[in-house]
Amino acid sequence: MTGICIAGATGWTGRALVDGVNAADGLELRSGVARSAAGGEAGGAPVFARVEEALDGVDVLIDYTSATAVKPNALVAIAAGIAVVIGTSGLTAEDYAEIDAAARERSVGVIASGNFSLTAAMCQAAALLAARHLPAWEVIDYASAAKPDVPSGTARELAERLGEVRAPELGFPIEELHGPQEARGAGVEGTRVHSVRLPSFVVSTEVVFAAPDERLTIRHDAGGTPEPYVAGTLLAARKAPERHGLTRGLDMLLTE
Fold it and tell me: Are the beta carbons of 76 and 66 closer than 8 angstroms?
């Protein structure tokens, strides 16, 4: 039985994961972390204010907290020899490099994904394949008006992993543009990323590839519930204890 701690257990995704873990074979919810609910319980498990207090009997920490809390939480779990699943967005490539180094030093597995939806993972896998054959692309990131981090974790991860394939052709040099360079989006590992923040969006990520006289658009749209993220997160929770170091992208698990 794999013992699970959910950081962010009372949050939007955390509540769905509590139910998902309790319904899953081979997984047992041992604890939760949520400052607002500390001293209570979630799904029959005790809730603590801090990750440090919640790791007794835990094999995997699942983190759906905030961009400021997730890296410290992950490093605490890694130092304790506990595998980690990161569903929280907002971390940079440098943050992930630090987490990977700590995990390798402790021979601990960490699985992170900007989006644990199975269909989002398929979208990313298709985009990485397309980048091997098409010369130019840009990413458009849609989310709600209240989302504080830009780009979304889904879009940032996609751009960073596209950069590992190769740099896209940009056409006119950004530094020679006439007008505000911001109009061409932010550069993330060589990819231009445009973040749209408007009411009615949850998270949608679109990557547009182009070659002479043709274009390919690959897009993922999330609905208004956290249910799509549960199956992928639980898959990662089962896989994380078997791994060493950081694995980025749910799609990396789908081909195993």
Answer: no
Distinct helix (H) and strand (E) counts, the chain: 7, 13
| Strands lying side by side in the sheet with 109-112 | 41-42, 45-48, 27-33, 2-7, 60-63, 83-86, 109-112, 245-248
- The DSSP secondary-structure symbol of 88 reads -
d(CA 256, CA 248): 14
Query: Which residue is it, tokens 């709600």?
Result: 144
Q: Which pLDDT tens digit goes with each residue over 120-166?
A: 999 999 999 999 999 999 999 999 999 988 999 899 999 999 999 99
CA-CA distance, 96 to 100, in Å (whole number)? 6
Average pLDDT across the chain, whole number: 96
Read off the tokens for 99.
């987490």
